[in-house]
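Job type: complex structure
Entries:
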Amino acid sequence: MIRAKDINELTPWQDLTPGGEIYEAGTARAFNTGTWRTNTPVFHEEACKHCMLCVPFCPDSAIPVKDGKRLDFDYMYCKGCGVCENVCPFPAITMMIGGVAR
Amino acid sequence: MSSRLSGNEAVAYAMKQINPDVMGAFPITPSTEIPEYFAAYVANGEVNTEYVAVESEHSSMSVCIAAQAAGARAVSATSSCGLALMYELLYVAASCRLPITLACVNRALSGPININHDYSDSMGARDSGWIQIYAENNQEAYDNIIMAMPIGETPSVRLPVMTCMDGFITSHAVENIELLETDAVRKFIGEYNPEHYLLKKENPLAVGPYDVSAYYMEHKVQEAEAMKAAKSRILEVAAEFEKISGRRYGLFEEYRMEDAQLALVLIGSTAGTAKAAIDKLREDGVKAGLVKIRVFRPFPGEELARALAGTKAVAVMDKSEGFSANGGPLFAETCSALYNLKERPYLINIVYGLGGRDVRTEDIEKVFGRLADIAVTGETHPAYTHMGQRSREEETV
């Protein structure tokens, strides 16, 4: 069975699954979708109370959590939707115009 | 066993013998009777099919796609505008590689609105990635639907199959027909055992994900290769079918082509009319023949080129307009199939029979008359004409 991790943009058509079927879950982790971003969230750690509201609201996997604390954005998955900034009760997230994190 | 059935009854009966898991269908003339008869089988408990009544053909094909992806065998039936409303989903079914079976009862596509036969509906769907098999009569309509699943479900193929018959001419005319025993049909079809399906709890499956440009082309090449592989599978299934039925099928049927100098290429019920005309012309010493295309997708280009290589002049008869201003779809395919022959016959295109306009043996004889002239003079102009329309000008066929 062909696994998502074994497929990339160099894989010949003979080695892809028929019709692009995917035979496992959670394969979004393997794909860099952050290149679509036009606006970029910026994390201000000093203002963050780690209430974790932003984490479940993020539609992808752009906010990693470790030991009960959120870490800086993983821009590989961030499309710049701004939902995290919207739900954050503190001034811990601000949106910056442009797709490149600085 | 012998019976007398209309084309629609024959197809519905074949579906009953197959006993598919799911039917999603919406009524439209002239295919309405197929889901109608089938609904009666469901109501009478003669099949254990889940019959899904839907609000449109867009939905009926969506039901089939979902059911087939889930691991079920799904069937549908439609005509004309119904097929057009499925258009988007036809491509989805093919690209997801779901071997759905669809009975298409050919009817002119609006507009102007018309309920009678031509191929403008299925010819519009010819590039959707579906296998297309056309019937000349009720017997072939019955046989083709029984062969559809063993063709489409083969792992190297995995493509949906559209079996087509002529609206009213075949779908509503009652003919003597040989039916197989239900046990023989079930044995021939076998169980549907896809390797991956949504209801297989052991491993999750996503069907039809977004395909970025880094992958789309590769998946389309897979589909194109599957369509190429379908050609040999169609012949294998035909050979297996011959063993249980005694009836022989190829990619096309050649009628009196052994020594033919003048030939027709056409699809469907007109073949019967053409055969009668050819028999008459043969009595007068005209070396006339016919190639009846049965499988239009995949198109049997190389095989057709071999069949026509020895002829002098060929008329391709299209029962649908392509509005290319350069001839109909069957003409385009035949031209490209013959182009690489070192010695080609002269080729003309006649568009006829649109919206149920009748074609008679005398019309076919006229076409052969034109071919006889072309064989002598080499003059093919005009190469693309219409036949059977009222006109102030004298008809050139």
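Summary: Chain A has a mean pLDDT of 93. Chain A touches chain B at residues 1, 9, 11-13, 16, 18-25, 27 (CB under 8 Å).
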